[in-house]
Amino acid sequence: MARAVSCGRAPWWRPEVQDESGFDPTASGAWRGFYVYAAGGQRHAMQLDLVFGATTVRGTGADDVGRFTIQGGFEPDGVRVWWHKQYAGAHAVWYEGVRDGAQPRLVYGGWRLPPFDAGGFKIWRGSQDDSLLTASALDSSELTREALAREVLAR
User: Fold this and answer.
1) Could you give the angle at the alpha carbon of 54 between the alpha carbons of 61 and 151, nearest 5°?
2) Using one digit for the tens of pLDDT, what is the confidence trace for 9-54?
3) Is the pTM for the entire model greater than 0.90?
């Protein structure tokens, strides 16, 4: 049964609803978002179904490349999130990002497919329309490794 708890700095996904472990069961479910290949580049939509554990994230999804699975983790009291996106029968992509403090169900950062390519991404919980997020929160021109590094170091 979910209940409000006080545990210092609350987990990022939904601090007001947590069980005894600090986990918010409502963070699991549908997420959507996009990835880009370069700053200012075209957005490639992705749909994800994520399941959050105490420090893990796993799930499935699809984008314009194909269907994939997600395996990764996060800092429950911090801002960092990471996972491998494994396409069925194909390559894997490493994702690493941070949650947005102003919009706790928004995660953004960078992806890498060494040695070939890298870019940025943003995902958000549920069926929230893009118009409900601030323009700066969705500005793909800010999705660069330098911008991510500034954001991580600032926290």
Assistant:
1) 70
2) 344 444 444 444 444 556 789 999 999 987 678 899 999 999 988 8
3) no
Collect contacts of 63-69 with beta carbons under 8 A, ≥24 apart: 63/35, 65/90, 66/90
| DSSP-derived secondary structure for the chain | --B----SSPPSS-TTSB-TTS--GGGSEEEEEEEESSTTPPPEEEEEEEEE-SSEEEEEEEESS-EEEEEEEE-TTSSEEEEEEEETTS-EEEEEEEE-SSSTTEEEEEEEETTTEEEEEEEEETT--GGGS-TGGG-GGG-SHHHHHHHHHH-
Rounded Cα gap, residues 92 and 135, in angstroms: 30
Q: How far is CA 68 from CA 14, 35, 42, in A?
A: 26, 14, 21
